[in-house]
Design brief:
Helices cover 44% and strands 16% of the residues. The protein is of the alpha/beta class and 237 residues long. The chain starts with 7 loop residues before the first strand and ends with a helix.
């Protein structure tokens, strides 16, 4: 089963580069994209990203940059040189930072990766908003951060699948919605608060689904990935 644009982004949430490369060998760029986050990038660096891109994988470099504009600009530009498919920043860094990040990816020319913004982490709740002194619900904060990101020229956002329908209605079809917190039926929610099944998420407007442990910690990861892809194909019929 080959897919022209796989919707599943497998989160390689490990510090073991050998384990990440082993998964890449068992899977296929025609079946999934891969996410390299802080843990794996810190332990294995750009060399691991380059090895995965050489194998043909689209890489989502999930480092959630959040710093002063000039620092973020330089970091995003450096990351863009790795041949990645997508990178993200925190929308809460403000418009000046978002504009600097957009300028950095535009400088990458034909190798320009997609640039998306984190709205609200999927582990957070309304109580967390209050503790941070933010006088908004999670849903209200997501709307505000999504609007800021798109106004700043970004390609889309990271959001919970539970917000996907709301954001599609507000912003239309052009924005990329990348949704973690995806859990197939019968799997453990782990530390995610706002979760949804793959089929539900796509039907509600998600562009790409970030799925980690339900695939990587499955007894047969390739089988788990195939089952998810099959459910997505069925949902589109």
């Amino acid at each position: 089963m080959l897919i022209s644009d796989p919707k599943v982004i497998v989160a390689l949430d490990t510090s073991d580069s050998a384990q990440a490369l082993e998964f890449a060998q068992k899977a296929s760029p025609e079946l999934c994209k891969l996410k390299v986050g802080k843990e794996l990038f810190t332990s294995s660096g750009p060399q691991l990203v380059e090895k995965l891109t050489v194998q043909g994988y689209d890489i989502f470099l999930d480092l959630k940059f959040h710093d002063i504009p000039n620092t973020v600009k330089k970091a995003v530009f450096a990351a863009s040189q790795l041949g990645i498919w997508m990178i993200n920043v925190h929308a809460s860094g403000g418009q000046a930072m978002l504009l600097a990040a957009r300028e950095a990816v535009d400088m990458a020319g034909s190798h320009r990766p997609f640039l998306i913004a984190v709205t609200v982490l999927t582990s957070m709740s309304d109580d967390d908003m209050s503790q941070l002194g933010i006088n908004r619900t999670v849903s209200e904060q997501v709307r505000a951060m999504a609007s800021l990101a798109l106004e700043s020229g970004l390609d889309g956002m990271v959001c919970s699948a539970k917000e996907a329908a709301m954001l599609r209605q507000q912003f239309g079809d052009s924005a990329l919605l990348v949704t973690p917190g995806i859990r197939p039926v019968g799997t453990n929610p782990d530390d995610q608060q706002r979760i949804m099944t793959p089929k539900q998420a796509i039907n509600d407007g998600s562009s790409y689904l970030v799925i980690g442990r339900p695939i990587t910690q499955h007894a047969n990861p390739a089988e788990a990935l195939a089952e998810i892809n099959q459910s997505l194909i069925q949902s589109s019929i």
